[in-house]
Design brief:
36% of the residues lie in helices and 19% in strands. The protein contains eleven helices and eleven strands. It has helices at residues 48-54, 57-68, 103-109, 116-135, 197-200, 207-223, 237-246, 249-253, 258-268, 278-291, 304-307, and strands at residues 7-10, 13-24, 27-34, 40-47, 82-87, 91-97, 99-102, 138-139, 148-151, 159-161, 168-169. A six-stranded antiparallel beta sheet has the order 1-2-3-4-6-5.
Length: 310
Amino acid sequence: METELKSIVVEGKHYEIIKELSYKGCHPIKKVRNCENNEIFVCKSEPKKSIIRSQFQLKNEYEIYKYIHKDGKANQNGIPLIFGFESNEIGDIMIMQELGLSIKKVFEMSKHKFSLKSVVKLAIQMISLLEYVHSLGLIHRDLSPDNFVFGANEEWNKLYLIDFGLSHSYLKDNVSGEHIPFKEGVGFCGTPRFAGKWSLAGLEQCRREDLESLSYILIYLLKGALPWDEKLQSCDFYDLACIKGHTKSNELIGESPKEFQTLLEHSLNLCFKVKPDYNYLKTLFHELFLKCGFIEDDDYEWNPKYINEI
């Protein structure tokens, strides 16, 4: 029987484990306190027994975070700060910035219903986050409502993107800026419900797959479900790709604003190496926000005053 840890040491700093927050795959997430200055952080770990299966996923995520933070602008653009990483006899451990609730958690607490105003607000932030990550030559490859997280405390209205364990570069190298070649039969990685049809079919992923995933996330938040939800347990990846490929965008969107259909079709029509038009898409949703008569205030489902009332 494993002994439950009460504290950990990472890069010489002692942290008291306060409580377990969640599990993401094989990665326990815990809230911890720096014993020296009492600051609160989050600890993400990968036990030794899981490292073989995940192929050092947490180590890869740490390296991705280090690379992203090289430009000094990552945190202001919605990428959490990382405060340490260590491999020991227990496994791999990463200390990162404390964040708030994920979109998935708030959505569940809101009984799987977000207002149009909230989804449009999220669309603008999420497109901006993707634009920033893509500008660094990276694709995420595992977008889901669980990987978009609101900031903690006074940053409750700021969105962060997390979980870069499956991320990689879509460039051959950063010097030439040459795009990786198109490939078939590379296998699937990601979250099937929100994954793009080509990635489910085992094709090499690129920026368009991130954007297609984002489209499905927004439609899910708007409508509360996706047409293939009931097939997720019975279909293999290729069958699910076929279902998505045969689902017409206008049927998927229904009576929702056509801007969501435009976003989806923009991603579906992109060629493998083509850069999405982020400015066009952000403007599209900015204009929708104004057209609907919405005002920029604190009236969103993730406002702490609403969360505390649930």
